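Researcher: I'd like a structural prediction for the single chain below. Treat it as a standalone chain; there are no partners to consider.
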Amino acid sequence: MFFVKRQIFLLLFIITSVQLNLYAQTPSSLEVPDFGVDDGSVYNSGALRLTWVYAKDLVKQDVVEFEVQQASSSEFVQQKAIYRGPDLATFISGLKNGTYFYRIRALRKDLEKKSPWSSPLRIEVKHHPLSLAFTLAGVGTFVFLATAVVVFQGSRNQK
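Model: Treating it as a single chain, here is the predicted structure.
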């Protein structure tokens, strides 16, 4: 009986040691994530992919998740949370013409700690002008009609 108690005690000691060692390896304060997008970037489609970089060991251990906010001013007076999760990227679509600001922070799931917010990232959305769309549609129509005429003339000459 003494041998079984000793084995159980030894097993609990090993498990506790491993857990304490893992806990000691993860930092108590969190780094601020860095965006992988250039500040002041201009997008013409109203959609963008935001990426960020963070310490790989914490992401692999599934200890960290990220929170991204969007606002129309760099002060983030009226912000909107657009992403919260463990991924290192998010896709945003449906943006109208204008300037948008984004910030990100890391959150530790196990300790409920939060990093400071990142510096604001400024993104500008400028859709292609409507005149360009009409011009391209007109050129496409002209090419289609010209091709149809050539095919029609060729088939008529064959008879």
